[in-house]
Amino acid sequence: MSLLTGGHAAAHAELSWSSPSADSVLPESPSQIVLTFGEPVNTVRDSIRLVAADGSEVDLGRAGQAGGSDTISVDVPELADGSYVVAWRAVSADSHPVSGAFVFAVGSSTATRPGLVDDLLSESAPPASGEAWLGIGRGFSFAGVALLVGGLACTVRCAPSRLTSRSTGVLLWAGVAAGIAGTATMIAAQGSITVGDWLAWDDVGSTTAGRWRIVRLAMFVAAAPLITLRRADRWGGWWLNVSLLGSGALLAVVAAGGHGASGRWVPLGYTLTVVHLAAMSVWAGGLVVVALSVRDDVWAVSSRFSPMASSAVGALAATGVVNAWRQSDSLDGLRDSTYGRWLVVKLAVVIVVLGVAAWNRRRLAATVAPRAPAAARTLRRLVVAEVAGVSLVFVATAGLVNSPPPRAEAAPSLGSVSVVEDGRVAQLTLDPAVTGGTVMHLYVTSTTGSLDQPTDITVSASLPSQSLGPLELPVVAAGPGHVQSSDADLPLAGRWTFTVTARFGEFDATVFELQLNVST
After folding, report:
1. Which of 192, 288, 373, 475 has its CA 20 to 30 A from that of 423?
2. DSSP result, 460-503
3. 280 with 300, same domain?
4. Are residues 145 and 88 in the same domain?
């Protein structure tokens, strides 16, 4: 019996069940290795590796997901007796890598090479350089979205006569360049993080987040001819309609590859993320329009942009707060997590930028004659300073999105235990292993790794140290050899004993006793 553990699991998805189970000893070679996670994941190259005790690797095919989006499996050749290490890695729905390793044995266990498990975990851990370049790429990609989407929207609303001007073209081309460079860097860095190869675009494209990033890159590339066509009179309204629709599609694609696509209440999170990106683009892109693109009537453009900016900042604050709450179980989780610290940095930068902007405008209005040439120059300089401040917001946003939300970092530990009786294996998982209501999964398999199909399974729990129980735990069927309880109530902390009775017809039953520590 053993706690099922992972290694560098730095995201939402956690390994909740495996066949073979951790530290199990099988009388026969398993036909498959099956891993089940707490939420959907994507496979990558070498998602499952199998290494013998002496360090030699067993040849396996490419892992697949025939059992569903939350399951990874691979066929296993006939294995000789001895211990083996399963090293696994995958990518969660919001692009964060997860990895781990565990040991099982066939026939009888043997000593593994010293440091073998640690070496395998280190090999699957994401390199720091990849994480850094992923953050840099995100920052440039966000800037590209802001310049394209926000620059276009604010030019149409605040300075429509400048739409075909050279300065607007420079603004939009800068957005395309930043978007292409940033998104391509993200894809390359994701390859480095997931499989250790900066050119592994095919592996990145096999993940959900990776596919959305490739679509994002294609949309930035497709924007280039549209920018060229904006100055042709014959395209007129057609060009504008296509560009605005494309802007909305770009926001939707960016949101689909991030935290909005994971965690609690995904439809709400995704919608809020689209609105958040749109508000960010309007605020940042509009500031650039005022500062750099419009030079002959900066006061008029600024006055038109002001209500747009106010609405955008309000939407940014509202959607940001709700999404942070959606991704966190508590304020303590935000305070104690990397995600929460980046969120505080982002909020602080936004508040400082808004405060400096308000103070500068008040000082400008009091000391310079409105609409005087000197006032226009001063206003433009102040807006340029705001743009510099917003660039720091992009840096904080990139760090925020690079970090796993606190629901992943601070989640209570998952507990799992397995035991073999009569040629069958029972594996019980509590997610999390805490008092009160928790989610319990119970799997019954044969010792060869294939799912058995009992006709009935009952589960009771007792806490001998407190003379409590047995308590009957209601379960429902969740698949072949799999039952679960969505609210298993364990009232006290301690080492609980779970008695599982699995019936295989009228005269065949196996009773398992499993022990697991439960904390508060």
Report:
1. 475
2. EEEEGGGTEEEEEE--EEEETTEEEEEEEEE-S-EEEEEEEEEE
3. yes
4. no
